[in-house]
What does this fold into?
Amino acid sequence: MKSAFISTILFFGLAFHTSFSQAQNFTSLNQFLDSLEIHDKFMGTVLLASEGKPVFQRAIGYADWDKGLKANTETHYRIGSISKMFTAVLVLQAVEDGILSLDQKLADFYPQIPHAEKITMSMLLQHRTGIHNFTNNADYLSYHTKPLSEAELVEIIVAGGSDFEPDAKSDYSNSNFVLLTFILEKINEMPFSQLLKTQISNPLNLKSTYVFTGIDPSKGEGYSYNFDGKWMRDVETDPSIPLGAGAITSDVNDLNSFIYALFEGKLISQESLKLMMEIKENFGRGMFSFPYSEKRSYGHTGGIDGFRSFLGYFPEEKVTVTVLSNGLNYNNNDILIALLDSYFGKDIVLPSFQQVSLTTEDLERYVGDYASDQIPLKLTFVREGNKLVAKPTGQPATALEATKEHTFEFKPVNAVFLFDPEKNQVTLKQGGQSFVFKRQ
It folds into this structure.
């Protein structure tokens, strides 16, 4: 259920409302966030802004849970794949400067990549290359905390091969933006970290936005956590792995400043911005589009280690919404909807966190190995104390929440497991789809 710095598109089809009023009374939103904090559902910082100026921001939880160091609205979080927006801006700046072309072939830089002679810079930006996503590999979690060189990463990407013909379709791949990082470093003769600082952070006075190193709470940075009865600190991905695909740290105010400046034409031209916003099979160039009723925002999601993030901007309304978390035991999409409903004057439904109490004997009914004919994924369920834990093939173990009879949920990714002990099967419902797994 948990991935590394893969940005999952969790925010399509947010909510559908017919009318709006901007009566911005944030009392209900604060109550909503209070409930999340009390029940250990969310740690992080949220922000709403209008025309670049914050109208609501709040931090809950801890930057360092073990030492009791509370987070605040200036806490720095790893933003995962929101980094791709910064990388896309740097690429388009290079295009505007005439040192790179969107039609330029990958073969000019990495001829050893499969189909490199057919792959353009534009395809890399829009995930239309077919280059296999190396973070999907089963062995990724065996090395992601260790530094790797350019040669080593390129070797891994080459070994991954091609999943489809270039430009035949779109499919998300972190490999694309890792390669773009190396290309930017070559044409600018500058490390990516310095390029980010020179071209974006310094001009916009983004003091919290940089390529991360080891997390240091004394410098305003937060650790990331997973919840297993209590908050447990997660590992730290080495920055040499995600690079421009996911190695940036920032805070909510910097991200608001960045995306507002981007849409105000302070980083790239309006023509280049339109290229970023051009959506083809759900993908822009370093950008996604997310609907909220008849309104539409542009931005990106992110996830790295225990961090989850969202940055979106509504161009017509000039509204920014940002969610940065370093601990999530809830569905991030529901937090986003609550923020937007609050801003646009809609009622917020406060969550209920009542859980079903199950005995050891109850939980043992679900324990076992399950497989599906629909997808190449196996699920193993084990009992750990009074919790049922899911262990998907090649993914970390995840404690599930019992919500009613035979029903368990993992709310961070909106996954529901419906057990039928009589039939020896479990149905996984996620993203509007259902997959049946039979006990082996």
User: Anything to note?
Assistant: Residues 1-23 have pLDDT under 50 and may be disordered. The longest strand covers residues 295-304.
